[in-house]
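Run: sequence + zinc ion -> complex structure.
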Amino acid sequence: MKLLKAIRNLKLCHRYPFLRPRRVWDGKVIPIWTWKAQWTWLDSFPDGWHKFILSQLEEVRKVLIEYGELKNFRILDAKEKYGEARIYWTGVLEKTCYDKVNDILIQMEIDSWNFCSSCGEYATMESKGYILPFCPECAKHARQKGIKCVAKKE
Ligand SMILES: [Zn+2]
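>> structure
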């Protein structure tokens, strides 16, 4: 299991180098013997969002490659906040490239709210208290675990 995860993560970070964790204080990649490829920034998000987020990161990757900036884009933090996928990033990028990447990630933040955080289906429900989007089926399961879910306000 750990090995499968490591293989998956190494492949992921080969395609999207910015998903690999870095040391906070100097931005250097965490050495493989410490990292062991058991975690990437993608794991900061609920499983249901992974497919959608990767589709958006693919767009980011295309733009970065187009401008020769792939190695200059760095993720500082990635998290789910108020039911939205947020990526905080840095990088001295060419102006047009910066704007394009920024637009994709701002739109991703807004659109993530439409995807069920458990399975990735279209989300018509939301949990109360800790806010997350759910599809009707996953909302049912969440209710069984005592999480209050209601229809989303449009
Ligand atoms: Zn679902």
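>> summary
The first strand starts at residue 74 and ends at 81. The longest helix spans residues 95-112.
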